[in-house]
Amino acid sequence: MTPTLVRRHLPSAASPGSRARDWAEIQERMLVPLYEAVYQRLEVSSRTRLLSLGCGSGLALLMASARGATVCGIDSDRRRLDLAHERLLSLGSRSGRGARLGHGGPESVTEPGAPAFNLVTAFDPLYCAGGSAHHLAGALAKAAACAEYGAPVVLAGWGPQERCAASGALRVAARLADPMCAPSRWRPSGRDDLENLAHRAGLRPDGSGRVACPYGYADMGSAVRGMLSTGAFDAAIEATDEEQVTKELSEALHPHLRRDGTVWMPNVFRYLIARV
């Protein structure tokens, strides 16, 4: 599925709240091909009990719910969770009303005696690439403890840099960030990063795939706001300021500006299926 281009007026500065909404309205949809590929491969249906780690503003949960799945999601960003709550309530469907969202670990969305999850996802590349490997492995291990034996756990990350046009823009984030913020800085995905993370969490890899996820924006302002909303530039903004980051990000995006004013960046994402 090709991402829909969004036309809207974008102010020059973004508060944390508006950045969360930019994620929901501009950026999150860029990962729809990844969600669709995984759900189709794993045959997500009314028999699926899904736990989403780093669920963001809930688009992946909505898509799973539309397939009949029972969905739960956790995220560290309360603003994104609020938007996910609004989205799921607006469904008005049985699965939408049964969705559970939490801020913290899997215990925040599990109830005593509830059936174990039979699918766990961590789609956000920053969830898998950001932070320390020890912290992420621990979070995955806690999630796996709430899942059935043999249940799939899906991790996602960037594909090879040469096949990800957004890499140039993301390198701005890494270059401007304070080196002391290494755990929160963006870095390119290594070939075996997802497998290594799975092993640290006590999971066994059991297949992988690649999906084209192009980033398409209506104009340069929308592209900048969308990229900033990912969280990849947060450390750079803290180390410098938003004006400097925005300036250099715009320059990095300029080669992808097309004659009609849209910005288009072909990307490939990789996902790993591991088993509990």
Mean pLDDT: 86
Q: Using the coordinates shown, work out and report the CATH topology.
A: Rossmann fold
The strands making up the biggest β-sheet line up spatially as 3-2-1-4-5-9-6
Helix fraction by DSSP (H/I, runs of at least 4):
25-40%
Cα distance spanning the termini: 30 Å
Give the radius of gyration. 18 Å
How many domains in all?
1
User: What is the name of the CATH superfamily?
Assistant: Vaccinia Virus protein VP39
The fraction of residues assigned to DSSP E strands is: 15-25%
Number of helices: 12
| Poorly predicted regions | 1-12
Do you know the CATH architecture? 3-Layer(aba) Sandwich
Classification by helices and strands? alpha/beta
Overall shape: it is globular
- Say how many strands there are: 9
CATH class: Alpha Beta
Element order: H for helix, E for strand: HHEHEHHEEHHEHHEEHHHEE
Largest sheet, strands/sense/barrel: 7 strands, mixed
Protein name: SAM-dependent methyltransferase
InterPro entries: SAM-dependent_MTases_sf (IPR029063)
Describe this structure in words.
The protein has 276 residues and is an alpha/beta fold. The protein has a single domain, classed as Rossmann fold, CATH 3.40.50.150. It has 12 helices and 9 strands. The protein has helices at residues 16-27, 32-41, 59-66, 78-91, 94-97, 125-129, 133-144, 167-176, 193-200, 220-228, 234-239, 242-253; strands at 49-53, 70-74, 100-102, 119-122, 152-158, 204-212, 215-217, 263-265, 268-275. The strands form 2 sheets. The chain has a 7-stranded mixed β-sheet, with helices on both faces. Strands 7-8 form a two-stranded antiparallel sheet. Strand 1, helix 3 (59-66) and strand 2 form a beta-alpha-beta unit. Helix 7 (133-144) crosses helix 9. The longest helix has 14 residues, at 78-91. The protein starts with 15 loop residues before the first helix and ends with a strand. This is SAM-dependent methyltransferase.
